[in-house]
Amino acid sequence: MSDSDKWVPYRHRQPAESPPELLVPSVMPTDERVWVPVEQNVWFRPLLMCVSRGYWCNLLRVRRSGVLSRHRHPLPVHGLVLKGEWRYLEHDWIAREGSYVYETPGETHTLVVDPHVDEMITFFQVNGAMIYVDPDGNVTGFDDVFTRLEKCRNHYAACGLGSEYIEQFIR
Ligand code: FE
Hints:
9% of the residues lie in helices and 42% in strands. With 171 residues, it is mainly β. The protein has one domain: Jelly Rolls (Sandwich), CATH 2.60.120. It starts with 35 loop residues before the first strand and ends in a 12-residue tail after the last helix. The site of fe (iii) ion has 5 residues, from loops.
């Protein structure tokens, strides 16, 4: 490659089957309605709803201490803590602001936010599903990209952004 080629963009079409790229200019929304409530004081903010591969990327926000959920992962999860901190009852570490977390396939754990934390915000890429369980591992429910999509549609329709607001995040 010659020096003059360095700043020349790729000249050809992208593959026809390649989905459109996605840029979310500001992951922290200025419009509070973008946060989808899951339960009291718990919200998620969709970034990518990848229905073609069965995963989703979102921010999770918690504004009061408590036990969030006990769940099992069939596939890996990647997490990046943007604000506050949280931990799993099954581990002795604490995920603090700036921490990266890899959650392994097959693991069951219980996410808790301790009382001294005012607000926790964490980016998660969740593959496959969150399978909610009791302390013995009996299944009590699940979430996958499709149940999350449904929650987004319902919330955005109800809050006035419009159910189609979620479409921009679907690939
Ligand atoms: Fe988890």
